[in-house]
Amino acid sequence: MLGSSAEHKCNAWAASMSPSPLTTHALNTAHGVPAARLPVSLHRLDDKEWKEMAKGVTNSDGRCPDLLTSQTFIPGIYKMKFATDKYWQSLEIASFYPYIEVVFNISDASQKYHIALLLNPFSYTTYRGS
Questions:
Q1: Residue 67 — pLDDT band, cuts 50, 70, 90?
Q2: Cα dist. 81→14, 17, 24, 39, 110 in Å?
Q3: Strand arrangement of the beta sheet that strand 39-46 belongs to
Q4: Residue 102 belongs to what H/E stretch?
Q5: Which of 17, 44, 95, 121 is the most buried (most CB within 10 A)?
Q6: What is the pTM of this model?
Q7: DSSP character for 90?
Q8: pLDDT in tens, 10-58
Q9: Cα angle for residues 19, 63, 21 (degrees, 5° grid)
Q10: What is the CA radius of gyration of the chain?
C-alpha cells in the first residue's frame, strides 16, 4: 500500500516461504549472530519523494520476509532503511552509523529480490542475494 505506515512484523522463519518478491536478511558479524529485532522500513521513490511502503522488525533469524506483496511491488527505485542505532543501543554497544540506507533499482517486478546486510558497529556490507 503506497504511503501506508502499516506495521509488518517479521515473525516466524516459516514466513520466509511467503510469496513476497522482496526479502531481507541482516547478520551481526561482530557476534556471528542474526541481527534480531532490527527495525526496517521500505520506501519507493514516487514523483521525487520517498513514500513509505512498509516497516517491520527482523525476526529471531534476522529476516524480514513479508514486507510487500507482489501486487504492491512495481518497477522503480526503492530504499530499505535499517535503524542500526536502535539495534546497537539495545545491545548497549556504541556504533558509528545511526542508520543504513540501501537504495536499489527494480526493473523487473516479476523477479525475486533479496537484500542481505552484514553489519557490525563500524562497518557494513550489502548485496543482492537469492
A1: confident
A2: 23, 23, 11, 8, 23
A3: 49-57, 39-46, 76-82, 100-106
A4: strand 100-106
A5: 44
A6: 0.85
A7: H
A8: 544 334 445 789 999 999 999 999 999 999 999 999 999 999 999 999 9
A9: 25
A10: 14
